[in-house]
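Continuing the batch. This is chain 6 of the set; chains 1 through 5 are on the previous pages. Same settings as before, nothing changed between runs. Recording input and output for traceability.
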Amino acid sequence: MDILDNLTKAAKGFFIEDDGAALAEAPAPQPLPAQASTAQPAGPAPLVTQAEQRHLDHIASLLVGDGKDFGAYTKLVNSMAGSGLTGPLLYQTAFNAFAALTGVDRPTLLASAEQLTHKLADDRARVLQRHREKLGEATNSKAAPGPLALLQQREAQLQADVAALTQQLTEKSQQLREIQQQAQAEKQKTQAALASYELANAAAAAELQAHRQAAQSFLTPTANPSTT
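Output for chain 6:
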């Protein structure tokens, strides 16, 4: 009798709650298989171990129904699981109680599950598309680029500017080296010319001085010797 009492409490707890509370306690849907993406990741994804509340609220809003859908049924399954039921007996018992209350048959219930699955998949595709737009990976998108895409565009422009400036710097550096080499050669040429001039000037001055001294010595008049 204990299990019957537990089932009664579980069903009562489910039926007297409003649809919003039933949905809030519904089991989290199993994640869909990851869809292939052609975009290459820019780096390792950050480690996230818990979904943000805003995302949980968004998913919950997608699964809001009229109390006769698969989301409400899974709420009843979870409620009855606390009574100790498991496996096929749990799902059969929950379905019988759910059908008795709502009049929903099995095909309708499973169709509701399919609709919820498609709703989640469509929403995920939309979010992934917007994510690619924010990363600047989407092509032929009419949506305005997000902050990250704008930053990436600015980054690419600055990289191009840096490349152009680097090329200019390389060219100017080469020109500077050539000018320095020319200046050094011209300096050496000028110094050599001055050294040559100094040699010529010194030789001429030495020769002039020698001739001057000789002229002074030999051309100075001397007195005639007196006769005795």
